[in-house]
Amino acid sequence: MHPWIAQRTTTFDASGIRKVFDLAANLKDPINLSIGQPDFDVPESVQQAAVEAIESGKNAYSPTQGIAPLREAIKADLDQRYAHPDREVFISSGTSGGLMLSMMSMINPGDEVIYLDPFFVMYPALLKMAGGVAVPIDSYPDFQVDPDKIAAAITPKTKMILLNTPANPTGVTATVEQIEAVAKLAAKHNIALVSDEIYSHFHYDTPFVSAAQFNPDAIVIDGFSKSHAMTGWRVGYVHGPQEVIATMLKIQQYSFVCSPQPAQWGALKALEVDLSSHIDDYRQKRDLICDLLADRFEFTRPGGAFYLFAKAPGNDGGEAFVKRAIEQGVLIIPGKIFSDKDTHFRISFAAADETLRQGAEVLNRLADEG
Ligand SMILES: Cc1ncc(COP(=O)(O)O)c(C=O)c1O
C-alpha cells in the first residue's frame, strides 16, 4: 500500500463493482439491466427551471442549508404530515451526501450500526469511514425487515439502525407493522433511526409510510435522484431533530458546501411534477419482469424501487452466473456486491420493455442450461 494512504480507507473496498464495470466495458451493445436510475429523462419543466436559474445568474453558492423556497416547501409538507416540533430539514448533495453526513455527525469510533444484508453498497463503507462497526442482519431468503432480529442485535454499543425501504438491491418494501416496530424499537433504546427513503415514490402495491410517522426523532434521507431521474444533479434532503441537522450542516459547510444551486431550483420545480404515469409504467415493468422470470428463478416479488434480487440457478453462486450472463451480453450485478453472500444477482428493471424481454430470454436460457 502506498505510504500516504490513510488506514480508514482500508476497511472497505470497491473492487467488486470495478470488476463488473471492467467486464461491461468489453461489451459492444449490452442488454443493460444494471442501471440504478430510471430510464426516463428529467421532466422538461425541471430542466427548464434549472436552465432559467443558470441564465438568470443563480450560479453562486447557495446557503449551506439550501435555497429558502425549496427548504420551505419541503418543511411545510413535513409539518403538515408529522407536526413534529423538533423536525428541521436541509438540502444535501444527493442522498449520498445526507448518508455521509449522518455517519460523520453521529458515529463515534466503536459505535455499532445495524442494517439489513443485502444492503446498499454505501452503508458499510460510510459507517466504517466514520470508525463505526458494521452489524449486518441476514435477511435471506425473503429479505423482510424482521424487528425481532433487529432487537436481538442491539447491544449497549448500538448507535444507529439504518432502514431502507423500498430497498436496494431487493426491491422489497417493509410492511407498516414492521416499520412501526423498528421505529418504536429505536425510540425505546434511544438509538438513532436513519431511514433511507430514496425509493419512496416507487411503491407499487400499497401507499408508502415513513418511519417518521412512528418516531418523531427518525432521521429521514430522501432526494430527487431516482424520482425525477436527476442522479447527476445532486439534490437530496435530510430531516430530523434540529440539533442533529445543525451538526450535519456544520460538516456540510466544511465539505460539500451546498447542493448545486441551479439544480436546487430545478428540484423546486420537481415538487410540482405529477409522477403517477411514470410510477404506473414502472409497476408494469415490475409485473413484466416478474412474469418473465417466475418459472425459472427464485425471488421475492419486489413491492418497490426498480430492482429484483434473484437466486442464481445451480450451485456456482451469483458471481459465476453473472459472468455467464455478461458473456451473453446481459449486464446484471452480482449479489455479493450488496451482501456477505454470493448466491444472488440484481436485475434493474429500469429499462425499456423490449430490453427486459431480451434480457429475460437470455437469463432463462442460461438457467435451462444449468
Ligand atoms: C438505497 C440508496 N440510497 C441512496 C442512494 C444514493 O442516491 P443519490 O443519487 O441521491 O446520492 C442510492 C443510489 O443508488 C440508493 O440506492
Automatic annotation (TrEMBL):
Entries under Gene3D superfamilies matching the protein: Type I PLP-dependent aspartate aminotransferase-like (Major domain) (3.40.640.10)
Cofactor(s) the protein requires to work: pyridoxal 5'-phosphate
Keyword Transferase among record annotations: yes
GO biological process, one term: amino acid metabolic process
Superkingdom assignment: Bacteria
Enzyme nomenclature, EC number: 2.6.1.-
Keyword set, alphabetical order: Aminotransferase, Pyridoxal phosphate, Transferase
Matches recorded under InterPro entries: Aminotransferase_I/II_large, AspAT/PAT-like, NHTrfase_class1_PyrdxlP-BS, PyrdxlP-dep_Trfase, PyrdxlP-dep_Trfase_major
GO MF entries: pyridoxal phosphate binding; transaminase activity
Listed Pfam families: Aminotran_1_2
Segments forming domain Aminotransferase class I/classII large: 29-362
Family: Belongs to the class-I pyridoxal-phosphate-dependent aminotransferase family.
UniProt protein name: Aminotransferase
Organism per entry: Stieleria bergensis
